[in-house]
Amino acid sequence: MELFPPVPYPGWSDTLATVHRFAQVVGRVRLLASPRRNHWWNVPFHLSGRGITTRPMGLDPTFTIDLDLLDHRVDVSTVAGRRASFGIVGRSVADFHGELQTALAAVGVHGVDIGSARPFDLPDSDRPFAQDTEHATYDPAAVTRYWQVLSQVDVVLEEFAGRFSGKTSPVHHFWHTFDLAVTRFSDRVVRPADGADAVTREAYSREVVSSGFWFGDPTFPEPAFYSYTAPEPAGLADAPLPEGATWLERGGSHLAVLPYDAARAADDPRAAVLAFLEAAYLAGATRAGWDVEGLACRDGITDPLLRG
């Protein structure tokens, strides 16, 4: 399989809208059943060999929800061996929401109430998942391709993560924004903006450079790699970026963007993505006064004997 196969946003936008909401339904379970960690690191999904997973959560019982994006099923299983499963092709969000609650009850999970859950930061955030019969488009081939691209990007982001020895998030899949991200921290405490919500306050309580990939949305209808620095230092958008990348003004700040198709067109797509991520990181870190040399790491090795 080629590295970074085509995944044009217009070709699967309706399916993406459905799957995004499926993920948010499962994400609400993860939010309620997992022990809280700094910067909400407990909430995102991780990739598995067949799709995406919540990882184990809960204690009575301990259970996991896996989205198998090859067979297009949801598996809910406990460490005691109880399991419930249902197919997701042809289901509306309301159907998915109801089936997931039934599956949770079937394996003995009773303390997680998502009955009135609603989408987060989506146009239909006022409508409960239980009432959403609108979003029901599901193209299995497109969903499998999404997971395959996600898996390839995951490996490249893991390589990028290994070049930094400071505090770093896992490479994880956020269900609210539907992106794959890894974040580097300076550990400099940040005073939150007046009126910032609880999610934002915790996510950005320290200075960060965050990098990742998303599949596009109506405001930016194409997949792309991205990077931003928060808080944004002066002059960030003046920093040069590799060919094909640009600074995009978005929400009062600047996002470094490398379109997915620009990376695909490069002679070495992997190297092009890594060069972009490194340039965007250096643009933010140097202007924010980070110890760039001291935090650098070669090939994931910090042991001076191994580094030679």
Features of the shown structure:
5-stranded antiparallel sheet, 6-stranded antiparallel sheet, 32% helix, 11 strands, DUF5996, alpha+beta, 308 residues, 2 domains
Rg (C-alpha, Å)? 20 Å
Major sheet strand order: 6-7-8-9-11-10
Uncertain segments of ≥5 residues (pLDDT<50)? none
> What percent strand?
15-25%
Helix content: 25-40%
Number of strands: 11
Textual characterization of the structure:
The chain has 8 helices and 11 strands. With 308 residues, it is an alpha+beta fold. The protein has 2 domains: 9-131; 140-295, no CATH class. It has a 6-stranded antiparallel β-sheet. Strands 1-2-3-4-5 form a 5-stranded antiparallel β-sheet.
Give a concise summary.
The chain is an alpha+beta fold and 308 residues long. It has helices at 9-33, 93-106, 140-161, 198-203, 260-265, 269-287, 292-295, 304-307; strands at 46-47, 51-53, 63-68, 73-78, 83-87, 172-174, 179-189, 206-214, 224-230, 246-250, 253-259.
Describe the SSE topology.
Layout: H1 9-33, E1 46-47, E2 51-53, E3 63-68, E4 73-78, E5 83-87, H2 93-106, H3 140-161, E6 172-174, E7 179-189, H4 198-203, E8 206-214, E9 224-230, E10 246-250, E11 253-259, H5 260-265, H6 269-287, H7 292-295, H8 304-307
Antiparallel strand pairs: 1-2, 2-3, 3-4, 4-5, 6-7, 7-8, 8-9, 9-11, 10-11
Helix pairs in contact: 1-2, 3-6
